[in-house]
Amino acid sequence: MAYIRLRGCKCKPKPTVKSKCKCGAKYSFTVDVGIDPQTGKRKQKTVSGFATKKEAENAARIVEYEYSQGTYVHEKDVTFKDFSTEWLKMYAASGKVKESSVDVRRVCINRIMKYFAYIPLRDITRKNYQDMLFDLHSHGYSKETIMASHATGKLIFNKAVELEIIKSSPTRYSIVPVKRKTVEELESGDGLPVYLEKEQLKEYLRKLKSKITRQEYAQLFVLAYTGMRIGELCVLKWSDVNFDEGTISITKTLYNVNNNTRNFKLQTPKTSGSQRVITVTQKVLKVLKDLRTEQKKFKMSRMKEYVEHDFIFVNRSKHPGYPELQKTLGDKMPRFTKISGLNLKLTPHTLRHTHVSLLAEAKVSLEAIMERLGHQDDKITRIIYMHITKSTKYEAAKKFDELMDGI
């Protein structure tokens, strides 16, 4: 049974059940909500601030009903900062996520902290949370960044619900704002990833071949001819290449958050579908064989310093033998582009997109392309594929029109 009280009331006579106190005093209620397992004493919940006795009684009945049904949650005063810090430890200790995933969640938490750091979880409303997503959007954050932050927020608040720290998650029903494309953007095809046409790729590689190192050329060639990710390329080992069968096994990716050459880590690829064996042409194998011959000479010249890890693409400066970092190749791309004479902003990932476009042009199925690239599903790959195969759709419509000619 709830205990209702009115403290500090100076009114005479006292207010009725449904009337407000003229002096401004507020009602409160106290109800029993179980036994503390550590002390054996009863636990109570007290809530104040009700204008009338009736309001306090109704609120008390709701708490009593929830307790009787086993749905009552005694919300705690833990702040977002404190709980998210503990949550990240649990997330990392689960053994189900890679270190790189933990780092991504940490960045997202720091972003959310700017809004909710010292606010108790129970005081963060759906409106507060939705306003945060809108504010991120208004400050120019990309859709992908906002979605990553939202995904992290959902994980944190859902865990808080699971642990009965809060009753419900403020992330429910939230929407991620998206910039609506203008007519001009739609007509110009804006949003299509950069990739090289077949002749552009040929010219790009032809001009670079004699102007850059054999290893640099091999990196670009393998990226363009296999479509693998830069992180997968950096940790390819000679043992991954089967020169007899003409295949390359992709089983790992490079993780190095601080870009410290010696502090590298090998991780499993992005998804389970990313672990794959891809078939390559004799052209790719020849480029790799030529590099292997040159690498043996390089090892001999740096024999005292060279640390053997069996990597194909190695650091050629202070730490020979260690895998070359993604950033190293990325930083070289503007120089390569300038040499090639192309008026485009290219990255290592551009060559992955190029591989997709050329496979699509060769009428390879979307499913086969995704399998080769290690994708289970990918929006960008689909966009490129649909763009390249537009002519095929036109041919289909034209053939149908010819079939129905005369009607």
From TrEMBL:
It holds the Pfam family Phage_int_SAM_3. One of its GO terms (biological process) is DNA integration. GO terms for molecular function: DNA binding. Keywords: DNA integration, DNA recombination, DNA-binding. It comes from the Bacteria. SUPFAM superfamilies: DNA breaking-rejoining enzymes. Gene3D superfamilies: 1.10.150.130, Intergrase catalytic core. InterPro entries: AP2-like_int_N, DNA_brk_join_enz, Integrase-like_cat_sf, Integrase_catalytic, Integrase_recombinase_N, Integrase_SAM-like_N, Tyrosine_recombinase_XerCD. Residues 191-398 form the Tyr recombinase domain. PROSITE patterns: TYR_RECOMBINASE. Belongs to the 'phage' integrase family. This is Site-specific integrase. It comes from Paenibacillus xylanilyticus.
